[in-house]
Amino acid sequence: MKRYFILLLVIASCNLSNKKEDVAKDDKKVEKKVLSASDSIRVRGYVEKSFQNPMHSLEYQQYLDSALTIVPESAWLWQLKAMGLYKSRKYQLGEPFLEKAVEYAPEKYLDYSGFMRCIFSKDYIGSISEFMRAKKEFGDGYVMDHTYNFYIGLDYLQLNEFSKAKEFLLLSKEQQFKDFSDDPPQEACHYLDWYYLGIADFELGNYQEAITSFDMSLKVYENFAEALYFKGKGMTKLGNEEGAEWEKKAFENAENTINEDNVIYEIYPYQVFHKLNESARPK
Prior knowledge:
two-stranded antiparallel ribbon, mainly alpha, 65% helix
């Protein structure tokens, strides 16, 4: 973590010391403020002090506020303010700060904002809008280890628009097949893509197709509890009595749940085995 903060400070220092940079805003060109050496030192000091406090604390926010009085156009500082609030589940407070980050640097933070709306604040319509804008302006890309199409697929799953979810999850799969063409299919496409593609088919009643996708996910993440669980459910739907055994195996492997970095803050879509599910907790 310490190395991460040092790296961020180096990046910030480089960004803040740029001589001049034109930014498009309201159809006009506005010039960013040129920092003096003393102002750069002050900003770095405020950021260092913010990192010395817990991200959820008022002190963390106040030091960043002090830095922003010197460089109010710093998208990175606005993003840091937002992140602290989102990870404290204060989404409405954090949203305006993330919007500021997008305003000053959409090429860096538009897709990140779409991710935060999908996984954190559960604003699925807003997430779709931002990812579609990102695709239009910057092309298909990746954020937080997944494609834009992946998150749009999750958004549609959470809106119960399962055909649209499958459409975008298939786009995500094909994108990864193209980008990682030398890898076998189960590795070229992320295990969570396979899992959520299976979920889309499960919700559409395509149980055999769903089981095929769950099996692909399980080739990479063995004993992945959610994939085991929904595979069992799908087998039961098809009249296979062995489905109950797969569901039982899922509960026996409840600790092998979705392992994304941000799962410590949020429950992911269709995450069965999480801390709020009493029946899934170890006995």
